[in-house]
Amino acid sequence: MSRPRLVVVGSSNTDMVVRSPRLPAPGETVLGGQFAMAAGGKGANQAVAAARLGALVTLVARLGRDPFGDTAEAGLASEGIDLSHLSRHPEAVSGVALILVDAGGENLISVAPGANATLDAAAVEAAAGAIRRADALLLQLEVPLAAVARAAELAFEAGVPVLLDPAPARPLPDELLARVADLTPNEGEAEALTGVAADSEGGAREAAERLLARGARRVVVTRGAAGALLCSPGSALALPAPRADAVDTTAAGDAFSGALAVALASGQEETEAVRFANRVAAVAVTRLGAQPSLPWRRELAGSDG
After folding, report:
1. What's the CA gap between 303 and 79, in Å, rounded?
2. Contacts 24+ apart (CB under 8 A), 186-195
């Protein structure tokens, strides 16, 4: 099977992670345990996830000219990712995420976007050729919406499927949703986008139906340990996740999105593609960190996703 070509437009951050017995309430200090720094950012995470699963990946992103940027660029290069459209801002610092993880693997995240916030439509335009040649385009919302919208427009005009992970959630224009082949919100993002509580299968389906009505071709609501709900006009299918002993859910959604993009771009049928993405995410939650948690294809015994 030939390796699918993916373009990822998105963020790159350095994650600073503290593990604590529990997550603090507002105004509360909780003494933590382990501290670690790791490469992260939703765009970079999804690019690495796809590359480790066998895709040829081009990343469109922006870093600062600082040590964090140097480390991030070197790490991405070591994954075999095409960085010809990775730029370095002369003044803005590289993005940083502060992450707290509790004993059950749940997390709280605050992001200082830095150079990510300067990624604009012109940077995307410079990568137009790569986008038009891709088998799929993968997007998130940690960079300015103008860059996301232009990338989706270029891909849609060229007949390239667009996958959008709407995280962190923000209002989205119908014009953008109409260019999305696969929209992959989690329960919280589905609620933020629709106003429908999506923390049950019925609620997730109702939220997905509203997003389909606004133009998305398919909606996959990720539901953590419950798996994912795959919805298209007139149908909904719940696909359970493999059982996993979660230690850190950071980047689980990115593992899912990267895997889904690889599977669909490889010609997998949508149901099997979601099953494959569930498997990849289930591996990621058993490991600490964002990019360090993302599995290689050789680790997925028995998978042809």
Report:
1. 21
2. 186/221, 186/222, 186/223, 186/224, 186/253, 187/221, 187/222, 187/223, 187/224, 190/219, 190/221, 193/166, 193/169
Which residue is catalytic, options 66, 199, 254, 304?
A: 254
Concatenating the DSSP letter of every residue in 42-74 gives: HHHHHHHHHHHTT-EEEEEEEEESSHHHHHHHH
Q: What is the pLDDT of residues 108-143, one digit of tens each?
A: 989 899 999 999 999 999 999 999 999 999 999 999
38 within 8 A of 289, measured Cβ to Cβ: yes
User: 57-66, 81-90, 100-109, 231-240 — which is least confidently predicted?
Assistant: 100-109
Those residues whose C-beta lies under 8 Å from the C-beta of residue 27, and which sit 6 or more positions away, are: none
Which residue type occupies 214? R
> Residue 72: CB partners within 8 Å, gap ≥ 6?
12, 13, 14, 39, 41, 44, 63, 94
Q: At what angle do helices 252-265 and 42-52 cross, to 10 degrees?
A: 50
Name the β-bridge partners of 56: 5
102 in catalytic set: no
In whole angstroms, what separates CA 202 from the centre of its chain? 24
Largest CA distance in the chain: 53
Tokens found for residue 284? 């990621």
- What the block records as the tokens of 184 is 């992959």
Indicate the SS3 state at residue 164.
strand
Q: Do residues 167 and 46 make contact, with C-beta atoms less than 8 angstroms apart?
A: no
DSSP β-bridge partners for residue 35 = 18
3-state SS, residue 184: coil
Nearest to 53 by CA among 259, 261, 301, 273: 259
